[in-house]
Amino acid sequence: MSQEPLARDAQVAAFRTAVLEKLTYAVGKDPEHAFDHDWFEAIALAARDHMVDHWMDHTRQIYRKSQKRVYYLSLEFLIGRLLYDSLSNLGLLDIAREAMTGLDVDLERIRLLEPDAALGNGGLGRLAACFMESMSTLGIAAHGYGIRYEHGLFRQAVVDGWQQEQTENWLDFGNPWEFERAEVIYPISFGGSVETRHDESGQPRQVWWPAETVRAVAYDTPVVGWRGASVNTLRLWRARALEELHLERFNAGDHLGAVAEVARAESISRVLYPADSTEAGQELRLRQEYFFVSASLQDLLRRHLNMNPTLLNLHEKAAIQLNDTHPSIAVAELMRLLVDQHELPWDTAWQLTVDTLAYTNHTLLPEALETWSVGLMERMLPRHMQIIYLINAFHIDALRAKGIHDFDVLRAVSLIEEDNGRRVRMGNLAFLGSHSVNGVSGLHTKLMRSTVFAELHKLYPERINNKTNGITFRRWLYQANPPLTRMLVEALGPEVLDDPEKHLRRLEPFADKPAFRKAFAQQRLHSKKALANLIQERLGITVDPEAMFDVQVKRIHEYKRQLLNLLHTVALYQAIRAEPGTHWAPRVKIFAGKAAASYHQAKLIIKLANDIARVVNNDPTVRGLLKVVFLPNYNVSLAESIIPAADLSEQISTAGYEASGTSNMKFGLHGALTIGTLDGANVEMCEQVGAEHMFIFGLTSQQVEARKRSGDFGASSAIGASYRLNDVLQAIRGGVFSPDDPARYVGLIDSLVPYDRFLVCADFDAYWEAQRRVEELWHDPQQWWRSAVLNTARMGWFSSDRTIREYAGEIWNALE
């Protein structure tokens, strides 16, 4: 017998033994009486032991080399299930599967018990998770910093077609991947007043006397890279009160008052994105952002000083990346820590702050570039408001000293907005306090320079740069689609798993091989059958796996234009009934995504999707040519089922509004063809894949901007010129899809005429024609599957490894 099988047998036996030991001594269960969740915890703990071995080795190496560290601050980390992710990256997945088979335990069944960590909402949090994994894969010393939400974002249920928000109890059974660091605690303060005192040398010092202080407690999750290359740390903060119980109040009979401070403190890490439609909600969101930023900065400064005698080289040893505007209070907080606590001169502290911080912008929507009322900031963070005023004053003075006196320019670059009540512009603060400000696609970065940061860009022309987003292939190909992964390895060799950016292009000649195209279509059909079964189980709707799966899954927002897709759905429904002689392609329209709890219009769009589905799916005249599905509670695990099964990827945002998108990359990697606008990373996808293998339509960003400037969004003329669009709008408005409440969608439809801000009507006819081209190509399967293979072959550039190399080399200076 060869040595290799013996080694593998030994590995399988060792893993099986480790699981049994964890089951007995950590879970406290006998194998004969263990439930599935007991097995999950035992397997996870056995896998975690392997991660810890790599983790310790990597950490020692970082300290030994005095390696520069990257600190990634993000309000979201949408990490998804970790069992298969960790086992796969450690090279233990097949070993674990074989080990558990020997115990009559189905690892696939056990995997499904793991809840998705409720630490994010959509693309922002998923990007952060991809970046953490890529930094581990590339050996970059990194810490992710965020909040350990007790409930995270809500669990979405759909009741009578309406979204209902339910508590997401992802921690009910604990979290076997994390380590509580009870010794890592930092005080986080709010409110109070600031007093000027003089030190021994007579210099004035600002002393903050807070009214409230909470504790930030650290929880660490190891993040393992591909083939166990290295393991970094995701450190999440939980909020705790200084005292768990006010004993005097309790003994006096005030049992609720005795724990009131506990409830107030712990609300900080309770849920992700509390509704900010009230003043209390806005205050809680600001408390969340400052809480995790302050804890993270205190932590990294402590780590730096443990290794270095001074903070003056902070920028040489640490790079801090702000993921969107949420952590931008870091500019003021780092200044506070450097000036007030470490007593550095203002100018020195400011230079260190700018040299250390970098800011990623993810949106051009003015309402998403956070602003906080000056009143709220002064009440919650009085010292920070002083610092922001000082930063602003020094900045404006410096501009005037350079001869810049134009009032409009100074107003545009000010940190304080005066137009609609005095507010702090957090985007401007992040821009001024960072040495690098990057967009996340070529178009987005170009528009940043000409729109939201136009005047700041003129003053600092070298500061804005582009880093187009990417995705980790380990999660979104190898784990999500094993059949396609096996095809790629058989065709290109195992090296494609290690460097898809380099090797995936070698798949291009296979697009012209009929046998390979057939096999490619068969692996897609395998995924579609699995998704069809899931749809049947969850919704009771039967769909045909042989039909085209037309998919739009993303956060529900008007600029992402799920409404445009629904208008097309109705138009297609009407056409199928009216034109039975046309050779229609059978199609399943699949939607998924959550609407913000206070976003009425988005929730109404979800209801419309479900109303349309109810009518279309129950109409026998459609003859099965069209089905509509809305899958509730979209998360990473559901995405892993949907994306490999998609034939058509809907990326139809209004041009100039989507910063990048990453679902477009995931769909393209699996060979789905994209129908979309020239928006976000769709532009780069066109360059990589070729426009002839996509379905591009609609107004360009320049044309959209011209419509916005003119104030004429063209809805009336578009409706007047398109009988099809008019018929669709009248049907929805007239209650065809809402007979129980005929007026339900009157406001939604009527709002399009005066203010079709996202140009749904203007792009409708172009979208319809693009969808007709989709149908034509679907009827030519040889060409469809040729384009599908080429989509997969040309997606290697969209690896998050490539993106992180660019960050590390061009922003962080963290490549060895």
Automatic annotation (TrEMBL):
Its cofactor is pyridoxal 5'-phosphate. The keyword Iron does not apply. Belongs to the glycogen phosphorylase family. Its EC number is 2.4.1.1. Allosteric enzyme that catalyzes the rate-limiting step in glycogen catabolism, the phosphorolytic cleavage of glycogen to produce glucose-1-phosphate, and plays a central role in maintaining cellular and organismal glucose homeostasis. Keywords: Carbohydrate metabolism, Glycosyltransferase, Pyridoxal phosphate, Transferase. This is Alpha-1,4 glucan phosphorylase. It comes from the Bacteria. Gene3D superfamilies: Glycogen Phosphorylase B. It catalyses: [(1->4)-alpha-D-glucosyl](n) + phosphate = [(1->4)-alpha-D-glucosyl](n-1) + alpha-D-glucose 1-phosphate. It is an enzyme of class 2 (transferase).
